[in-house]
Amino acid sequence: MNAVQEQPVRPEVVKSERQYMIPEVNIEETNDGYRLEADMPGVNKNGLEVTLEGNELTLEGHRQDAQIKGELVHRESTAADFRRVFELAPEIDSKNIAARIDNGVLTVLLPKAEKVKPRKIAIS
Amino acid sequence: MKERNCIMTLIRYQKPEVAWSLPFSRVSTLRDEMDQLFDRIFQPSLDLTRETQLMDGWTPVLDLYEDKDSLIVKAEIPGMKKEDINITLHGDTLSISGERKFETRTDTTGTYRAERFEGRFHRTFSLPVSVNAEKITASYSDGVLTIALPKAEEAKPKQIPVSVK
Asked: How far apart are alpha carbons A33 and A17 in whole angstroms?
C-alpha cells in the first residue's frame, strides 16, 4: 500500500468554476520518510498553498499572471492553477511536514513518525 | 550416534537487484551479467514507470507573445539549472533545448511515482518575423524561461505618411 495515496477528484472540485492542472509528481521513500516533488512552473512561494486536513494533503499552486506586454500569438500553456490531493498513511508525522518551492518545483518532505522507524533494541 | 552424510549444494549468490532485472528466471550467464553492467551504467535506475516516460519524451509548453517592438517566448521548464538550458537562433528559427538532471540523492530507499521527466528536451520553431540576434535576452524564474527577442528594424511596423496634395 502506498503511504502517500492519490485522492480521486471529488464532485465538489469538479462543480466549482475553477479548473485545475494536475502537476506531475515524483514520490520517493527515504530513510526518514517520504519526499514528494511536483512540477509547478510559474508558481513561487507567494502562490503556493499546502494544506493538511486530517490525513488529506492538498497541494495548490497559483500561477503568477504573466506580466508580458503584447498579444498572445501562440498558446500552449493552460491558464489554470495546479492542484493535487493525497491521502497520507497514519505512519506519517503530520506535525513535521515541510514544504518549499524552487524554480517551479515543489518539494514536500513527509517524515515518518519516530516510533515507526526501525529501532535497535538494547540487549540487557 | 551415526554421522549423517550431508550433501551441500552450492547455489550462486545473486544480489536482489540482479534477480529483479531478470524477468524470466534462467541461469544467469557471464554474458548476462556483463549486459546488465552496461545497462546499469546507461540507465541508473531500473524504474519501470520511467520507461513509459522515455517513450513520450518531454515537450515543454511554449507561448509566443508579440508587440510592435519584440517577440516574447515563454517556456515552462521547471527544475532546470540555467547552465543546462540552450537557446540558439539560426536565421528566423529559434531553438530551445536542454537537459533536466535530477539531483543524486543518497537517502532514497524506494520510488512510488516517477511522473516527472528527466532528460533532454528540444523545441524548434520559426519566428513569424525577423529579430535582432544581438539584442536577444533571456531570463529564468520560477521554472519559466522568458526570451525577449527585439524585432529587426525592417520587421517593425512603419507608419507611412500620406501626403495630401
From this structure: 36
Residues B20-75 have pLDDT tens digits of 333 444 455 566 566 655 555 554 444 433 333 344 578 899 999 999 999 999 99
Per-residue pLDDT band at B159 (split at 50, 70, 90): confident
* Predicted complex: ipTM over 0.95: no
Q: What is the CATH number of domain A4-65+75-113?
A: 2.60.40.790
Is residue B153 within 8 Å of residue B129, measured between CB atoms?
no
Residue located via cell numbers 514528494: A36
Query: CB B67 to CB A71 under 8 A?
Result: yes
More confident residue, B153 or B31: B153
Q: Which domain holds residue B26?
A: 16-56
Distance, CA of A54 to chain centre: 15
- Residues of B with a Cβ under 8 Å from any A Cβ are 61-67, 70-72, 74, 76-80, 105, 107-117, 128, 140, 142-144, 146
Domain identity same for B150 and B75 = yes
Task: Write the CA distances from B13 to B28, B35, B49, B70, integer angstroms.
Answer: 11, 18, 28, 65
The pTM assigned to this predicted structure is: 0.71
